[in-house]
Amino acid sequence: MEVRVQNIRKEFSRFPALNDVSLDIRSGELIALLGPSGSGKTTLLRLIAGLESPTEGTVYFGNEDASRKTVQERNIGFVFQHYALFRHMTVLDNVSFGLTIRPANRRPSKADIRKRALELLDLVQLTGLEKRYPAQLSGGQRQRVALARAMAVEPNVLLLDEPFGALDAQVRKELRRWLREIHDRTGHTTVFVTHDQDEALELADRVVVMSKGKIEQIGTPDEIYDTPNSPFVFGFIGQSNILPVRVENGQLWLDDRSIGVSAPGEADGPAQLYFRPHDVELLDGGGCIAGIVVQTRRVAGTRHVELDVGGANTTVEIELPPEKATSDRSRLAFRPTRWKLFRD
Amino acid sequence: MAHDGTASPTGTGNTELVRVATSEHRLARYGLIATALTFVGLFLVLPLAAVFTEAMRNGPGEFLTVLSDPETFAAIKLTLLVAGIAVPLNLAFGIAAAWAIAKFEFKGKAFLTTLIDLPFSVSPVISGLVFVLLFGSHSLLGPWLQSHGIQILFAVPGIVLATVFVTFPFVARELIPLMQEQGTSDEEAALSLGASGWQTFWHVTLPNIKWGLLYGVLLCNARAMGEFGAVSVVSGHIRGLTNTMPLQVEILYNEYNFVAAFAVATLLALLALVTLVLKSLLEMKYSAQIAASRRH
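^ Those are the sequences you sent over. The predicted structure of the assembly is below.
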């Protein structure tokens, strides 16, 4: 089901947690809400769920206004950060809970509930563990029980709060791939909250980058990474370099050197040049950024070179192929191939 | 009523071997143990044993005769009745208060928490006097109550009120920290799965707090049955009508009817022993559960 969030504002005792946030989630989409802590991403998720109510604004489920509906009426599946499994119930009872508490006229038969719960446990690869209690499971297993429990009620939308936050790195990666598979197989509209950019970029169809209660950018992982539309997104997603430059007649200048980058149509004046460490080409001379190598590090398949450029003691980091050996204190000239200008 | 159910005892069979370097001299150890045992014996075991032997002085036959005395029997019945009303009331109140304090944010929360502790901090005699001031013949309410033929002081309602007041905090104090630690996400999970408020309470909240709740009820009951001061002020000591067991013990003792006094005291002492045993059992179970909830 598609979910639309319109001009939502949320205040916690006069402190705005969300400020005029609008977001369209398409049916069947896997969306990541990405941002640092305090950016309002979890608040937005809880507002969609109905666990919080907005100070202003509307949430639509399909064409229906869901803002005044209670969390029960919205029929959502919510996976909590620490899973919130019912510790006194077995895995099977946890997964069946949403169905067994339904009023008699909407409740499937006992046999059907059991069948459905076992199917879901099979889907999340926990067959055979239905009689265990949550305390007897590993973190990753609990996470999967929580997901099965949320899916048991056939929710309109599946909401996950930091689904991999409490797991160790190895399990995180496995579960990430696995969640994508589950999503592709079941087709639930899914929204998950994360502060981990790798997680968001790898997993989501679209990423919503948030900061200080506002949405900074919405886009596919490619769009977010390749064309960040604000200094915040550029800085928050991936590695980036920032250089203070000057625009003159459509040309970029660093201190008193032209760096060989033209920005036609840009007004004259100071600006900040943003570029990724790997979006550079090495040059022998001409218009370029020249720097002195401060440090080099070999990281996996690339060589990271830290350069001291310009008089303001500005350092940038660029990534080069490992066979490109450089020694400290040597000079290196390069030009960014993909970049963006931002003004204060 | 401070209890540290979570501080697990660390003594195991092997610690002695490991700790040789730090352990005291054998004489010092035995000396300390002997001192502790002597104190426990003198101040705890001996008095308790004295109660039982005094009660049985003239044999078990007399013991039973004394207990079946109509006035004593009435006192036992009254005590059970009062506890039977006060404990469920404070059970309901305790859950409601703990629920409100642990799961919601509202103004005056700290004040409410302090207020719940009030009965612990005032002398029971004052707790009784409060009701005399409220309902006595010279009070504001007194004449109105009298004209409507409602008897509160020197009757069962007064005793119940005083007992409820004194045992007010037991259940709530037990549940508040427990529920605060458990947080609200279990309840939110239940709600998100479509459960109503009542279903959430019944299927999720109550199972999570059941051991703490039982523990609180047990302590509440022990106090409700054993309360002397507050009840003494409001009861009026009418024989066979408004005397609870502790009051009956006092009366019998003042009449030099030692066997009868000690026989009733025996029942109260037994209640204390049963409470202690149950409390220890619960603590074992309860601390394991708390540990499980931490792991969770």
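Chain B touches chain A at residues 185-186, 188-196, 199, 203-204, 207-208, 292-293, 295-296 (CB under 8 Å). The mean pLDDT of chain B is 85.

Shout if you want it in another format.
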